[in-house]
TrEMBL record:
Presence of the UniProt keyword NAD in the record: yes
Manner of cofactor binding, per the entry note: Binds 1 FAD per subunit.
Domain FAD/NAD(P)-binding: 4-324
Organism of origin: Amycolatopsis balhimycina DSM 5908
Disulfide bonds: C39-C44
Lineage of the species this protein comes from: Bacteria, Bacillati, Actinomycetota, Actinomycetes, Pseudonocardiales
Gene3D superfamilies in alphabetical order: 3.30.390.30, FAD/NAD(P)-binding domain (3.50.50.60)
Protein name: Mycothione reductase
Amino acid sequence: MPHYDLVIVGTGSGNSILGPDFAGKKTAIVEKGTFGGTCLNVGCIPTKMFVYAADVAYTPSHSSKYGVDEELKGVRWRDIRDRIFGRIDPIAAGGAEYRRSHEDNANVDVYEGTGRFTGHKELRVSFADGRPDEVLSADRFVLAAGGRPVIPEIPGLDAVDYHTSDTVMRLDELPERIVILGGGYIAAEFAHVFASFGVHVTLVNRSGRLLRSEDDDVSERFTELASERFDVRLDRKTVRARKTDSGVALDLEGPQGAETVEGDLLLIATGRKPNSDLLDVAATGVTTLDSGHVVVDDYQETAVEGIYALGDLSSPHELKHVANHEARVVQHNLLHPGERITADHRFVPHAVFTHPQVASVGLTERKARALGVSYVVSKQDYAGIAYGWAMEDTTGFAKLLADPATGQLLGAHIIGPQASSVIQPLIQAMSFGLDARSMARGQYWIHPAMPELIENALLNLPLD
């Protein structure tokens, strides 16, 4: 049984932990899939590259309101796909090769197989090529094994062909019709992508709103706009999945009774879950929540001393920028056990790269009420700023929540063009304790630029 100073399970953000400071330690990396993890291979990066192409393809459908008559002549799906993965796949392969053979990794062993704990700090690795299993032990472990798509229990689903976000981006041909099961960020982003490329999109959602985890005003506005663009079926229970001559059908129960939707392709986008069960973390004493997320303390350490966890395996945020932050915390704590630092999850932002974009940080109004937090609210429409006039945007807005006594921002929620960028000054203000009045009046705001949306929203807050 080979024994290591450190074993890292997963090569997403976990892979970034090993640097020159670990050169004198005997380490191992275990990866069951493709090097680089979710973000690089099946998540943030390829999806946003598809989204950018979709944004370009979508432009002609609304360019006439600017006096510009454009026409979408066609979409070369394979060219789009191959441009994206032609860039990503070599990065994944290069990362694996670097860890396997570069002189910087002389003390690093790479195990490309599936790891599963069999005892206290003992990990059995199984290989797809039939090689005998190997059992590794280590003084310290970092668990960064990510997550995977949730597949709902629907009668007949196991007998039909379907895709998840892990597979749908590798299609050889665009379908004419796609049914997307789900109403969260994955469903919203892929609905925009496929609709922009000319595919008829049907969204099937079990609740009454899309993006329901967002602030209610944002969720309601997005649901309204999405319903104008896609065939949106809300408050639907999926009773059965069936094969058809052309693809797949879902039998539904909804407010008007039984109905059926059909498509050439079915995309399951009902969320993701952590891979803690595949690792059998309980066998080494690591505990999990009911959701499957590994329990960690403020130092990112699990219930077992010397075993740390990070990223989608332990974080309910399931965001790459959170995983990267946690990896930096874990790296420091491994190198400086007597001077450990804590992770900071106070102001974690996120964005949904659909159309229109959505971005958020801090408390929603619903959460503030549930917590009994005192707050005031302001809203600013894109239509009320000069750049909003230029874009003819009549649906987007920013919504801010602030403490009425101190003016400290409690939450920010934006739906509209470039929301993921426009929100950044608010994240900065919350992170560094800058109050709304000081932020609004203590600096120049470029006119007539999009950040005036934030300036006006700050000035609109009813503060003393």
